[in-house]
Design a protein that fits this description.
The protein is of the alpha/beta class and 236 residues long. The chain is built from eleven helices and ten strands. The protein has a six-stranded mixed sheet with strand order 6-7-8-3-9-10, sandwiched between helices. The chain has a four-stranded antiparallel sheet with strand order 2-1-4-5, covered by helices on one side. The longest helix is centred in the last third of the chain and has 16 residues.
């Protein structure tokens, strides 16, 4: 059984409809990518899944329970955690304080010490800078912190919106390596990413979204070798 399912989701902003029956299903312990051009509804789908947007139609199921009407806070407390586009750190707070803010739910507070050990092992640079204000970090370090803050929430599903946006290639490789480590630890991951080739290279499964609808889906290795995908998104 899938740990997370979004079924026939229609949603948008105001009177503007962005999603038209989009669906996805995440297998537990797997890394799934959601790819597509800018403006096709990827972020809207993520926001709807985690409860920041309400679905106009369709349903969202988490661990076999219909959570369509639950708030973002309630879903986060259950282990459905979003690392948003743009990082959204508390820039006047230290690295350590930002990480503490990730562990606000009761279930994550109980494992805070273990989670700190996990993120500092995964991101030793953050351990070195734990007393530094997050606003003074480099872009790559800030993205590490955003992901680490998500890990502090002790997620069952970690949803990451635009991991590599604006980062140097060497930092991107480090971050994608961290995703593989998280998956190896059993965390289910949903990744929205502009770098389609890199995203599919580390993923188990992929979905292609176009104009608010599912265009294609399948094992990541099949998608990365698909002529349409290679032409439309990889420039090959």
């Amino acid at each position: 059984m899938a740990i997370l399912e979004a079924k026939d989701i229609s949603s948008g902003y105001g009177e503007v409809q962005i999603l038209w029956g989009a669906s996805l299903s995440l297998e537990e312990g797997k890394l799934t990518s959601l790819v597509g051009a800018n403006g096709v509804g990827k972020t809207t789908l993520l926001r709807t899944i985690v409860g920041l947007n309400k679905p106009w139609e369709g349903s969202i199921w988490f661990e076999g329970e219909d959570v369509s009407k639950l708030s973002a806070h309630a879903k986060a407390s259950m282990g459905l955690v979003l690392v948003p586009e743009g990082r959204q750190l508390f820039t006047d707070m230290t690295v350590y304080e930002n990480l503490e803010m990730g562990a606000t739910a009761q279930r994550s507070r109980a494992r805070m010490a273990e989670s700190f050990e996990k993120v500092f092992t995964m991101f030793p640079r953050l351990k070195e800078r734990r007393g530094q204000k997050s606003g003074t970090l480099s872009g790559g370090e800030q993205q590490m912190l955003a992901v680490a803050r998500g890990v502090m929430a002790d997620p069952k599903v970690l949803i990451i919106d635009e991991l590599s946006l604006g980062l140097a290639p060497v930092l991107v490789l480090d971050l994608f390596g961290s995703l593989k480590k998280l998956k190896d630890e059993g965390i289910t991951i949903l990744l929205v990413e502009q770098n389609v080739q890199m995203a599919l290279a580390v993923s188990d499964y992929g979905y292609v979204l176009a104009e608010g609808r599912n265009e294609m889906q399948g094992p990541a290795k099949e998608l990365i070798n698909n002529k349409e995908i290679r032409s439309a998104y990889l420039g090959i």
